[in-house]
Amino acid sequence: MATHRLDRAQARRIAVRAQLLDAARPTELLAVVRRLTLLQIDPTAAVAPSVDLVAWSRLGSAYQSDQLRRGLEQDRTLWEFNAMVRPMADLPLYLAEMRGGPVREKAREWLRANERFRRDVLDLLGSSGPLLSRDIPDTSAVAWPSSGWTNNRNVTQLLELLVLRGEVAIAGRRGKQRLWDLAERVYPADAAEIPAVEARRLRGERRLRSLGIQRAKAFGGPSEPGDVGRAGQEAVVEGVAGTWRVDPAALGQPFAGRTALLSPFDRLVHDRERLKDLFEFEYVLEMYKPKDKRRWGYFALPILHEDRLVGKVDAVADRRNGTFVVHAVHQDVAFTPAMTEAVHEEIRQLAAWQQLSLG
Predict the structure, then answer these.
(1) Residue 87, preceding peptide bond in cis (omega within 30° of 0)
(2) 195 Cβ contact partners less than 8 Å away, ≥ 6 residues apart
(3) What is the pLDDT of residues 64-103, one digit of tens each?
(4) How many other C-beta atoms can be found within 10 angstroms of the C-beta atom of residue 158?
(5) Chain-centroid distance, C-alpha 247
(6) What is the distance between the alpha carbons of residues 277 and 238, in angstroms, rounded to a whole number?
(7) pTM exceeds 0.90, yes or no
(8) Sequence-ordered list of residues with C-beta below 8 angstroms from that of 89, at least 6 positions apart, any chain
């Protein structure tokens, strides 16, 4: 099959449309999560929790965080796994790997040494779940060793490993704290396991459809790989070295853009190398930098305008005083009057969605 040849504008429009950030807004949260395949959970809420901000960027002010809670805890159309919200319909794509997990030998050895601990936790959840981790006694025989924050956090570490094994599931949250229960009470009983090799192929196809265009080997993370393998078809992008994989269904589609403020964890900007290659846009999440070393702000929001990323909004939600404070709007390119008004309108909408006044 011939290699598709795209210019950067075509590639960007494929990426923007695939991420549901074009003018044709979706109307339902479940449809958004199914298309994106995931919403990343992060505790930072300087502007809004990232999982909510990503949903708002697609759905607008019609989205409310209670819709997410309902999908996770009542309707069970969504599930939380590996710090990601995913559509429950994708559960069969993970069951085979769960059954063989965890992958790391260190974790497997620790589980073998704590078999009694594992049984204690499963029995307690069976009789009393769902429970917060603080309500589960630590009966470990061997402590979890780590040089980081997980050192000796035996109950939480065990629960997370049992989630990876498909024995325990996150049943909901009480505030920011996770509620844990037996997986059989959370996951549908009729979920049919898909063999691991086939499941990885299908996940690659789903990932490519959600991104539109991606490197076969690309940046991801421990919770969600970036690779798409042989999914889609080969493409080259003018002015960019190497080859890409493109979703053939995304080729030749009309494009109408809009303006959007994005979470730093948004999948459109998550892969910084892809961001430079396709959008020629530099971005670093600066919350981990000293204040005097930041160029754009603690949790600066990338600004999408049509098919280009044009700047960043340095803002914070001051919920104590009921205000949304904008410290700066950084322009990577000179804004036209229409762009300025569109960005300011998005800022107004973001503040109003959170029931905050502009400070």
Answers:
(1) no
(2) 96
(3) 999 999 999 999 999 999 999 999 999 999 999 999 888 8
(4) 27
(5) 20
(6) 10
(7) yes
(8) 34, 77
Q: How many CB atoms lie within 10 A of CB 254?
A: 8
Kindly provide the b/e burial profile for residues 232-253, where b requires at least 16 CB atoms within 10 angstroms of the residue's own CB.
bbebbbeebeeebbbbeebbee
Beta strands 323-331 and 357-358 are parallel
Residues 6+ away with beta carbon under 8 Å from 75: none
Structure tokens at 216: 């076969």
Q: Mention every residue, 6+ apart, whose C-beta is less than 8 A from residue 31.
A: none
Nearest to 52 by CA among 265, 305, 244: 265
Alpha-carbon distance of 2 to 235, in angstroms, equals: 9
Outline where 65-215 has alpha helix (H). Answer: 65-73, 95-100, 105-113, 115-128, 154-164, 183-186, 196-211
Cβ pair 251, 55 in contact under 8 A:
no
Angle subtended by helix axes 65-73 and 29-36, to nearest 10? 70
